[in-house]
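Below is a filled-in request sheet from our internal design queue. Each sheet records the structural input a requester submitted and the sequence that came back. We keep these sheets so that new team members can see what a complete request looks like end to end.

REQUESTER: design group, bay 2
PRIORITY: normal
MODE: inverse folding
CHAIN LENGTH: 149
BACKBONE (tokenized):
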């Protein structure tokens, strides 16, 4: 019988992500059930293959035939700050990188979503993204800035 050699396994991406969520996000939310719902929807957003909408995240988690009201309330009425969700990830970056000199790549997308209402928060007049480069057209809308690491 050949001797067995055991190698220490490095944590995989899913284990690392779940550890970051459990340790870093639990204190952001006021109740455990809100944390559980946001954690489930976050994983649903990551695995949804279509547009990253809340409805697609609900369908990706297999809850499309249940009441969606609580899911939408988490995003619209719960008192938590979205910026606080990135702090644990940014704090864990040095330990996740191979070396201190290794760069972190990020892609930014600043999309102008057209809005016509005057009382919508964040609406401003900006350059229409569909206007030709030789003639600038203006439109009202919200600038949505998304980042991908």
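RETURNED SEQUENCE:
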């Amino acid at each position: 019988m050949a001797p067995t050699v055991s190698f220490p396994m490095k944590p995989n991406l899913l284990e690392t992500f779940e550890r970051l969520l459990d340790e870093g996000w639990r204190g952001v939310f006021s109740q455990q059930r809100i944390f559980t719902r946001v954690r489930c929807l976050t994983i649903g957003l990551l695995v949804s293959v279509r547009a990253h909408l809340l409805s697609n995240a609900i369908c990706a988690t297999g809850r499309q035939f249940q009441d969606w009201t609580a899911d939408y309330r988490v995003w619209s009425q719960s008192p938590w700050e979205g910026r606080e969700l990135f702090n644990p990830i940014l704090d864990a970056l040095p330990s996740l990188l191979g070396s201190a000199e290794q760069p972190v790549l990020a892609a930014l997308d600043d999309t102008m979503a057209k809005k016509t209402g005057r009382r919508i928060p964040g609406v401003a007049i900006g350059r229409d993204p569909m206007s030709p480069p030789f003639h600038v057209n203006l439109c009202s809308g919200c600038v949505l800035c998304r980042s991908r690491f």
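SHEET NOTES:
- The chain has two domains: 13-96, 107-148.
- Helices lie at 13-25, 32-47, 54-60, 69-76, 87-96.
FILED BY: M.R.
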